[in-house]
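Sorry, explain these tokens?

___
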Amino acid sequence: MLLDTHVWIWLVNDEPRKFGPRTRRQLGKATGVRAASVSTASAFEIAALHTAGRLHLSQPTDRWIRNSIERAGFKVIDIERDIAIDAGMIPAAALPDPFDRCLVATAREYGVPLVTCDRRILDYAKQSGLVRVIDASV
């Protein structure tokens, strides 16, 4: 499973009330070969949100990102050429946020569900059928 940026932050900040019971169970099982993944797009987004003052971290950004990945055992997925091309081909009218398009394309490339509460992504998945999602609120 691939974690949306907000899901990564909530998980690391130990905010279980943000997740529905089914998602909590699935996240609890995501270990070893089935470990949860995060995208380098989310690392960029976290750094940008912190720089803009919209996200406050307990450590310097690079340390927070590195430590959260190591502690949780997340796999990191880079935005490779095919992912970038696929993300660029998703209509902005469907998903205006370029980070969302990168995450959707990453989930498609790796054949994993994207864990998110983002209504636009959930609606896009339902309407298009082109990406599997887990609604983190459930």
In short: The beta strands are 2-3, 37-39, 75-77, 114-116, 133-135. The longest strand covers residues 37-39.
